[in-house]
């Protein structure tokens, strides 16, 4: 338990939901090490998340979902990530994408209603596949080499996507492709059963191994005309609050590391000391540093989420704040895990302690969007515009 949790939660429903999330998170923590080691997707975790209604949290109420605000969504993300970062990041993509479609109205309403029905009643999972081997981060605006060609009322899609999180568990893939006839970039909805769709098990990474963010290969995949969901706008993209699921996840990992180090310090008493290391001033200073980083990151993130939820009219102006939250929280999380490992010492490197996994997982945050350099560019531009 992080002592400052209470400050962020005040209504009964939030507390109830967080209690369920806490129970799930503890179960996931028990499985995290093995899934990480084997690079295995946490199918059991997702079975339980579905049973508890956690894959419909952001579906609109009118379609049977929880209609969560951004703030409440982040509380859940942070809590699940305390147990297993890979599960939280995977869940965050699914719930975040649904939240984004809900709030941006960018899909045809009938299509969205149908997908919501399948999520609510069948526990279906969805994610966006935008990254390609040579495209780099889609946040930089490069055009996909994946192509879509219209043939009568059918789209024919060919391409190669990388970093497809939840690959073996997805029911729907939202694929970005350049439309051959117009040069525009479209988003296409492709069901997992589509002929020509194949997952290649390429995901063998340092961290976030259980997200199974494998490659997606599309060879002459045929989908109906209405599979085209939206066209990417030429102008500056709208700020996207849902992406804060990413920093929330890394903050949860940092919180787990901080709590582990504090518990360790209470018990560990080397021969050279008449008391546990928790009484060593330098250890206390390090804990204080971690807690200041935690407070800074959490209050900033939840405050921006609060503004997003309560002042929808100001969302268009919040791009810089959202990017700054990602930067501050992700980098603070990395510092906190580092500090936790310094407190624990050499044992933090050992596989039987979770810290070395936190250390590997938290690094992945640097490579989720937006990258730090894009945030600096954004803020620099704003300052001189
Ligand atoms: C755990 C994890 C899960 C992910 N899940 C998904 C997912 O589900 N779906 C998905 O689509 N993607 C996913 N991604 C991919 C992610 O969004 C990025 O696309 C991916 O990490 C590549 O980003 P990058 O910054 O390395 O790429 P790049 O943009 O190629 O950056 C690499 C380097 O090149 C430099 N660079 C490249 N282009 C430019 C430029 N134009 N100007 C200046 N500098 C440049 C960068 O500064 C950086 O130093 C995931 C990534 C991770 C780590």
From TrEMBL:
Pfam families associated with the record: Acyl-CoA_dh_1 (PF00441), Acyl-CoA_dh_M (PF02770), Acyl-CoA_dh_N (PF02771)
Entry cofactors: FAD
Keyword terms: FAD, Flavoprotein, Oxidoreductase
Coiled coil regions in record: none
Keyword match Oxidoreductase: yes
InterPro entries linked to this entry: Acyl-CoA_Oxase/DH_mid-dom (IPR006091), Acyl-CoA_Oxase/DH_mid-dom_sf (IPR046373), AcylCo_DH-like_C (IPR036250), AcylCo_DH/oxidase_C (IPR009075), AcylCoA_DH/ox_N (IPR013786), AcylCoA_DH/ox_N_sf (IPR037069), AcylCoA_DH/oxidase_NM_dom_sf (IPR009100)
Acyl-CoA dehydrogenase/oxidase C-terminal domain boundaries: 247-364
Domain Acyl-CoA oxidase/dehydrogenase middle: start-end pairs: 129-221
Domain Acyl-CoA dehydrogenase/oxidase N-terminal: 18-101
Record keyword Lipoprotein present: no
Family the UniProt entry places it in: Belongs to the acyl-CoA dehydrogenase family.
Name of the protein described by the UniProt record: Alkylation response protein AidB-like acyl-CoA dehydrogenase
Organism whose genome encodes this protein: Aeribacillus alveayuensis
């Amino acid at each position: 338990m992080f002592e400052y949790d209470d400050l962020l939660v005040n209504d009964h429903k939030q507390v109830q939901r967080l209690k369920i999330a806490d129970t799930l998170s503890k179960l996931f923590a028990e499985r995290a090490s093995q899934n990480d080691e084997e690079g295995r997707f946490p199918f059991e975790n997702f079975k339980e998340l579905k049973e508890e209604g956690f894959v419909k949290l952001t579906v609109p109420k009118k379609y049977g979902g929880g209609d969560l605000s951004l703030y409440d969504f982040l509380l859940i993300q942070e809590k699940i990530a305390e147990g297993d970062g890979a599960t939280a990041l995977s869940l965050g993509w699914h719930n975040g994408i649904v939240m984004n479609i809900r709030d941006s109205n960018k899909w045809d309403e009938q299509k969205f209603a149908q997908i919501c029905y399948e999520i609510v009643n069948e526990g279906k999972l969805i994610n966006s596949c935008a990254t390609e081997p040579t495209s780099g981060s889609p946040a930089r605006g490069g055009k996909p080499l994946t192509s879509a060609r219209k043939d009568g009322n059918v789209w024919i899609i060919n391409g190669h996507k990388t970093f497809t999180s939840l690959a073996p568990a997805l029911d729907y893939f939202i694929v970005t492709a350049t439309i051959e006839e117009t040069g525009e970039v479209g988003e296409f909805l492709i069901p997992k059963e589509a002929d020509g769709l194949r997952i290649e098990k390429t995901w063998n990474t340092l961290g976030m191994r259980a997200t199974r963010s494998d490659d997606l290969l599309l060879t002459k995949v045929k989908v109906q005309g209405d599979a085209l969901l939206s066209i990417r706008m030429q102008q500056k993209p709208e700020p996207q609050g849902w992406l804060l699921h990413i920093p929330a996840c890394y903050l949860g990992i940092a919180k787990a590391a901080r709590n582990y180090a504090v518990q360790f310090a209470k018990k560990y008493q080397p021969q050279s000391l008449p008391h546990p290391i928790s009484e060593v001033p330098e250890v206390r200073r390090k804990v204080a540093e971690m807690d200041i980083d935690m407070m800074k990151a959490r209050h900033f993130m939840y405050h921006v989420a609060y503004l997003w939820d309560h002042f929808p009219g100001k969302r268009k102006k919040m791009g810089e704040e959202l990017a700054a939250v990602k930067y501050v929280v992700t980098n603070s999380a990395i510092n906190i895990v580092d500090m936790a490992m310094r407190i624990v010492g050499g044992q933090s490197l050992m596989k039987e302690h979770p810290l070395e996994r936190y250390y590997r997982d938290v690094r992945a945050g640097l490579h989720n969007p937006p990258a730090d350099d894009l945030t600096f560019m954004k803020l620099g531009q704003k300052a001189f515009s």
